[in-house]
Design goal:
single chain, alpha+beta
Length: 40
């Protein structure tokens, strides 16, 4: 479910970021949440 690592990296590049770091998946209120650091 959700983005694969490569899909998330590609989305970050489209948004103007050079890379994605520290990807963490957490479940909050029974919903998966993705937390990552986007590097310009």
């Amino acid at each position: 479910m959700g983005f694969a690592d490569t899909g998330l990296e590609r989305l970050a590049q489209i948004a103007g970021f050079s890379r994605v770091e520290s990807v963490v998946v957490a479940e909050i209120d029974d919903h998966p949440r993705l937390m990552a650091q986007l590097v310009a």
